[in-house]
Structure formats: C-alpha cells, structure tokens
Amino acid sequence: MGGAERTARKRRQQQLAGKTDGGKVVAAARRGGGDGKRIAAIVGVVVVVLAVVIGGLVWTNASKNATEGQAIEPATTQVDLPERRDGAVVVLGDENAPVTIDVYADFLCPVCASFEHQYGPQLKDKVASGQVQVRQHMLPMLMERSDPPGYSLDSANAALLAADEGKFVEFHDSLFAQQPEEGKRGYDKDQLIQLGRDLGITGEAFADGVRSGKYDGLLEQEMQRVSNDTSLHRDFGGGNVGFGTPTVVANGKIVDLGDTAWLDKVAPAS
C-alpha cells in the first residue's frame, strides 16, 4: 500500500469516527432532553398534587368552621306556650294536662333535630290544646363531638337561661333549625348571646349567665342522673345497652319512635 493510499484510508477512518461520535453526542442530547421532560412532568405532578392537598385543606377548614361569624336566624312560633324552668328541665304547657311527655335531647344530636322537625309542630299543637305537657331535658351528652368541644353544654345552658326569660321555645327551635354539624364547630357564646338579643332578651343576666356557664353544673348533674337511670336505658343491639338521644317518655314509658303514629296513640285527638 502506497503512502497516498494509506493517507486516504486514515482520513476516511477519522471522518467515520467523527460521525459516530457525533451520533453519540446527538443520542446523549436526546436522552438528556427526555430526562428533562420527565423531570418537568414529575415536578408538574407534584405541584398539582400539592395544589389539590392545599385546596382540600382550605375547603376542609372552611367546612369545619362554617358557623364562624354566622348569625343564628331567630325562629318564630305560631303559638304562645306557657313555659317555666324546673331545675335543669323546661316545662311546657298545663301542669294538669292528662299526658306528660319527657323529651331528652342534645342540641348537637342530628337525630334529635330530625325528631323536632317531624314532631315538634304536632307537640306544640297538643300542648296548646291542653292535651299534653312536655318536659324538655336538654342534655350535654355530645360534649366532645364539637370542635372545639363544649357546644352541647354551652347551648343547653343558654337554653335554660332563655327559659328564665320566657324565650325557651324560640331559642330551642332556632338552634335546631340551624344545627351545626356534629364533629365541627358549634356556635360560640357570643353567637348564643346574640340569638337571645335577636329574640328580644335585653337583660344582662342572660348574657352574663351564658358567659359564666351559670347552669353548667346543674346540667352536668342532670346528665349523670339520666345516664344512671336504668328506666331510660334501651337496647341498641350488639350488646349495647344504655341511654341515648333522642329518648321520649310518655307517662313513664319509653316511646318507640319507629312507630310514626306514636303521638296520636299517646294523646289521641279529642
């Protein structure tokens, strides 16, 4: 092989190597571009996930605190019922009525709200007609089921103070009509005081009693008494026997609320 031929072959080898190296560089660049796209995609997914999580937290907190700053709309009643407070119980109607119904409830209990919506108007009519006397036991049973805890006690205390002012029925109906969700924020003491004012309670005794928890001790004693009263216990199945809300007692006997005609059976229309 002559020198000229060897020189030409060497030149061809260098050119081929250059092309191969260039291919490697291009492939590497392409691979690098793919990694960049994957990184960008991953970052985008993380950002979206974070946005969803943060949005969920904001929505959850807003839902949890739905009652914050909310005015409780005052309820109106079509009948004027005699009412008086007897310790931790509010008595509605004529003490000489032939039928006495005791209603045990909690302002945070959703089943209690359903009971009031379904039977409240009928009970008022029978109280107004003199057929029935109703004894309302508002209990702090779900103390730990609001966030922060304590709404059951604060609302029950405020209701007793409203009864002292002759405004129990309206106060009671207002709280059940706009019941906070169990597990979330209830109404604070200032909101309860404002509801009283909106219902026409102008004296400072009501506001002072709400702030100080005037009847808290009385209500806690009543809760303990009721819990220990085996005549109020029911079998909830699965070996669970005890007291629960709502519990309705007519002339000393627990009512089966599964029977929608229970009230007409207890106090037939005259």
Short summary:
The protein has a 6-stranded mixed beta sheet with strand order 1-2-4-3-7-8, with helices on one face. By secondary structure, the protein is an alpha+beta fold.
Give an overview of the whole structure.
- The chain has 270 residues and is of the alpha+beta class.
- The chain has 2 domains: 1-64; 83-266, Glutaredoxin.
- The chain is 53% helix and 12% strand.
- Helix 3 packs antiparallel against helix 4 and helix 5 (189-198) packs antiparallel against helix 6.
Structural class: alpha+beta
Shape: globular
User: What percent strand?
Assistant: 5-15%
Which parts are unreliable, with pLDDT below 50 for 5 consecutive residues or more? 16-32
CATH topology name of the largest domain, in short, is: Glutaredoxin
What's the arrangement of strands in the largest beta sheet? 1-2-4-3-7-8
